[in-house]
Amino acid sequence: MALNITRKILSTHLAKPAEMVPGEEIFLRVDQTLTHDINAVMTYLAFEAIGIDRTQVETSVSYLDHNLLYLDNKTPDDHIYLQSVAKKFGVYVSRPGNGICHAVQVARFGKPGKLSMGGDSHTPHGGAIGMLCIGVGGMDVATAMTGVPMRLKMPQVIKVNLTGQLKPGCNAKEVILEMLRRVGIKGGLGKVFEYVGPGAATLTVADRVTITNMGAEMGATTSIFPADERVREFLRSQKREEDYIEIQPDEGCEYDDVIELDLSALEPLCACPHQPDNVIPLKDVEKKKVQQVFIGSCTNSSYSDIAKAALVFKGHHVNEDVSCTCAISSKQIYKQLMHDGYIDMLMDAGVRLLELACGPCCAIGQSPATKGVAVRTSNRNFKGRAGNPTAEIYLVSPESAAATAIVGTFTSAEEIMGEDLAKLAEVKEPELFSVDDAMIIKPLPAEEAAEVEIVRGPNIQPLPVPDAPEQHLEAKVSLKTVDNITTDDITPASAEFSSMRSNIPLMSQYCYNRYDPEFAARAKALGKSIIIGGENYGQGSSREHAAINPMYLGVKMVVAKSIARIHKGNLLNHGIIPMVFADPADYDKIDQGDDLEVNGLIDQMKTRDVEILDKTKGISFKAKLELSDSELEVIIAGGQLRYLQNQLREMGVVK
């Protein structure tokens, strides 16, 4: 049978035979896991609680890359804990300064044909080299590390047939912004986007990572490119050509849908506030005065991205009213750019170089001014994402960002460079990078690891574990939200808040802080409560704190019009029952403070249809559980940790 790339990789990782019908559950063996510092403590606390002494997958890597701004003791304590627990459990550690997790993972660990699960929503970055990489919550990473097959609802596979070639001044960012413009922030739910065709062959791995990385903003399960000669070139540049295998779609294979995209027809684009799919041509953006430009993030800080931005800056200077910063994705890339003179170009132009870290993308430094206009090459522009809810965030390519920084308002590279624009097409990825893995700590042998003592600072508190649901639930609505609530709304980003994520009693006090400052106190006072959500509840980052904090405050159930994939999994893992309105119109009938009651909750959940009584209004409405049998078992057990422990006891793996 002719197979597309996605089905080829899934079929080789099936833990038990399955027909791979879209929407049906399949179980997969995982090859690689990754975590990063601001989410990882919960992952490894969970792995400790499970009781297995070593990761059971081929490669597990812990990255210290997001919060390198040490405001007080909390973050350094987290990093010391993460380094010690990695030694204990056979996990690689990429130290602060080595680079952003996705860039380093693809460069130093990624292999075509492998299946990876990472505790970050942009894990699909690895699809650029023909891997199947899926972003999940931290509890799912801990589960994968036990070697237990991971459940996944079989996605539809969408062929994106690329033709033509990008023009100078157009970046791969234009490709993914065009995709977002077409399908929207929910258009990828339950789908994998498979980029193929003659246009795909013109894109380097550095181009492809921008597209697969930011596919997360469409809600996609993941995105993937073929493992072709471009991937071979990339692995050769990393001195890992032996890891290359060719993976192409079979001739005549089937897809669930097809999107045609001509790269030659693209022009510079811009995502306007406050959603990544609010995309228009850059030339049509209102010429507002820009206060800040940030070039970097995992999405757009490859060698060629930064080199092209530097060429735009050459002979120019950052506008006196603009603060322009740049964060390069890895030490390896930084050194090569320095060697080739591009760092000099940036510094001569007045660009400020930041740490090799995620930083501003997740509000760790460089917050915009009050009502400021910030232009960024990162992946998200949600309200408050950059640390200031009053700011407006626009997303563009590095070339467009550099031009904008020079002029002080929205400008394309062509407007700056004129006839010299063609020079951008001359930038090539290095044939051979300098490979130095001294900043990666290798796992200890098992006998040495057994002697390691895990170091816990005072900020690292135990992982809260929810109780199993009871047959009768009566609780008030502690919050009613609007559409497209993000995990940033639920658990804010920033250096300060990120440093609290190991301490749920502390972090929970700031749950929904920017959306409804009274929520945490109200929910805690109620003891148990229910949240009513709109469309796409919990979109954005994979941070499971957006589920753990409400659970800790007594939230037992979320009933929404729809729930984003990763957040739904996190709610499930941490014992909050995720439901959707059977009739979305019922959302309008429920208000914050209403007293809701469910009789025979567990029995009703087994039917997937639950009747909820609004005692305040004297009305009833129906909600659905869009859960598989195994997911239902998880929620009835009281979350993934309890469920997994029960499984492993039955298997005789733990006591």
Sum this structure up briefly.
The protein is an alpha/beta fold. It is 30% helix and 18% strand. The chain is built from 23 helices and 26 strands.
Spans of at least 5 consecutive residues whose pLDDT stays below 50 are: none
Helix content: 25-40%
Distance between the termini: 44 Å
Rg from alpha-carbon coordinates:
24 Å
Question: How does the overall form come out from the CA principal axes?
Answer: globular
Beta-strand residue fraction: 15-25%
Number of DSSP-assigned strands? 26
Average pLDDT level: 94
Quickly count the helices.
23
Structural class of the secondary structure composition?
Answer: alpha/beta
Spatial strand arrangement across the major sheet: 20-21-22-23-26-25-24
Q: Largest sheet, described in full?
A: 7 strands, mixed, barrel
What brief labels describe this structure?
7-stranded mixed beta barrel; 6-stranded mixed sheet; 23 helices; 18% strand
Question: What is the strand and helix layout of this fold?
Answer:
Blueprint: H1 5-11, E1 25-28, E2 32-36, H2 37-50, E3 59-63, H3 74-89, E4 92-94, H4 101-109, E5 115-118, E6 132-135, H5 138-145, E7 150-153, E8 156-163, H6 172-183, E9 191-196, H7 205-214, E10 222-224, H8 229-237, E11 257-262, E12 269-271, E13 279-281, E14 292-296, H9 303-313, E15 323-327, H10 331-339, H11 342-348, E16 352-353, E17 373-376, E18 392-395, H12 398-407, H13 413-417, E19 440-441, H14 446-449, E20 473-480, H15 487-490, H16 495-498, H17 504-507, H18 519-526, E21 529-533, H19 545-552, E22 555-560, H20 565-573, E23 577-581, E24 595-598, H21 601-607, E25 609-614, E26 619-624, H22 629-637, H23 640-651
Parallel strand pairs: 2-3, 2-5, 3-4, 5-6, 8-9, 8-11, 9-10, 14-15, 14-17, 15-16, 17-18, 20-21, 21-22, 22-23
Antiparallel strand pairs: 1-7, 4-19, 12-13, 20-24, 23-26, 24-25, 25-26
